[in-house]
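Deliverable D4.2, example record:
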Amino acid sequence: MALQCRLSGTTIQSLKMATIPISSSSSRLIFRPLPKTLNLSLFSRQGPPKAPSFALLIRALSAQAVTAAPATEIFDNKVVKPQWKAAIDFKWIRDNKEAVAVNIKNRNSNANLELVLELYEKMLLLQKEVEGLRAERNAVANKMKGKLEPSERQRLVKEGTNLKEALATLEEDLVKLRDELQLEAQCIPNMTHPDVPIGGEDSSKLRNTVGSPCKFDFPVKDHLQIGKELDLFDFDAAAEVSGSKFYYLKNEAVMLEMALVNWTMTEVMKRGFTPLTTPEIVRSSVVEKCGFQPRGENTQVYSIEDSDQCLIGTAEIPVGGIHMDSIIAESSLPLKYVAFSHCFRTEAGAAGIATRGLYRVHQFSKVEMFILCRPEESDSYHEELIKIEEDLFQSLGLHYKTLDMATGDLGAPAYRKFDVEAWMPGLERYGEISSASNCTDYQSRRLGIRYRQSEPSSTAPKKGKASQAPTKFVHTLNATACAVPRMLVCLLENFQQEDGSVIVPHPLRPFMGGIELISPKIR
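Output generated by the structure prediction step:
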């Protein structure tokens, strides 16, 4: 129960923060354990608020994140009604069950394909039964329109009543069966690009490598030590104020964050992307429709208790929802967005020295790219996104490698995913700084985003809806242009100098008031 109090005429509503998982994978850092619930105070003066062709394989599915238990919840033998429904092509899944089964296995999914197919067959049989009763009911109704003997009319009235009652029972059963089928089918992951390597993360394939690790002729420091000596951030104070994995940025680190964001936005906008800032609290249904798991133990997303809202873990979610339940003109495609937002992640289970400092935190700033396009264009736009990422990192002088991630490392929405890992000399390893995913029509089937094909020219155009071109689901893609904390790790560790200073890369200097070097403070 929320605790209310009065402070200077303002009602404070204390809301527990529960957590729900997100399908993206990330690493770990710990100061001390973070509870699975947090308190969030909201202020209100009014009081508390209330093996076929793979071109075909990818078109049918729309699913929850696959590491969860089956999505169907049953209380007192009643199936919970889904809050929304995805446009899942069940017939296609049945006709391609072998390919779907192999894909589920390769992606280590817990989706229950056999149950989905069983429920689908039951639904078809029940649907036929319902249609049969409706036909009988209509036949009885038609008979009663003519002249009839009283006894015959009485018999038909009784027969009609019985049919009506039987039909009502069957229609109720059909609704429950459809709900159960929908919930189970939402657990099936997207299909996978045929070139994606099969296996766990270690099976991921190297696409290319740029540069080589920096060589230092002095002892290398990690970003934590550099930040402490240059007075750039404070983890201890943030741990007292907010808990572990939070931080204060200070002095030049603040300017460096602003520079990274502004420079990245400027560069991506040059490539035809529309800039956005987004809501950072969204409805949980939108999170689900983007393909992220709504409940589970390995939590990544903070949800606000006793509400249908949660904090975003990535701008992909609110940007994905911007055209929800809409039909876009084909001439408007592609739609390209670059969005700045703060992101919030629980980082459940995160631990170990490899994730210390800024590498894995609960709150951070990020610039995200998002594209909606025609299905036949999504592979080429996927290449465009990874090229933009590589151009950005190369212009900053980073050494990195790009990987084609294996099936076991793909989130449920991704048809294919490229990761960029940069060398972090202080951590003595490569660390993920970016990813680019092609989600095909997985998200659009759930979000209801379609486009209407351009109509061919006609000398005598027809009028009315029948003349309109059919709609298709768009394909969606997302990519990280700049995850600020990890970029700070890269910059501080790769451009450190023997005297303790850090060189600011040339592209960022105009966005930092001309500062070229971050030097130790004179005490």
